Amino acid sequence: MKKDLRFEKTEKNLQEAFLHLLQAKDLTKISVKEICQLAQVSRNAFYQHYETQRTFIREPPAENPSVYGGGLPTSR
């Protein structure tokens, strides 16, 4: 199923916000609220795209899957 441009833009904004926060904070200290505020999207929009924060973190950006560098934990 093809995603519309608004959907793709929201995902891109969320991913960029997360990467920005990751440069300044430890992964465990980043909240969905902070990601959404920086991305300028609602928490509802976040959860329309991703089931959980963990799902979001595990899903690499579509246009550059190696951007997370494989350094994120896969289990807890």
TrEMBL record:
DNA-binding region: 31-50
UniProt keywords, alphabetically: DNA-binding
Domain HTH tetR-type: start-end pairs: 8-68
MF annotations from Gene Ontology: DNA binding
PANTHER family: ACREF/ENVCD OPERON REPRESSOR-RELATED, TETR-FAMILY TRANSCRIPTIONAL REGULATOR
Name listed for the protein in its UniProt record: HTH tetR-type domain-containing protein
Source organism of the structure: Streptococcus criceti HS-6
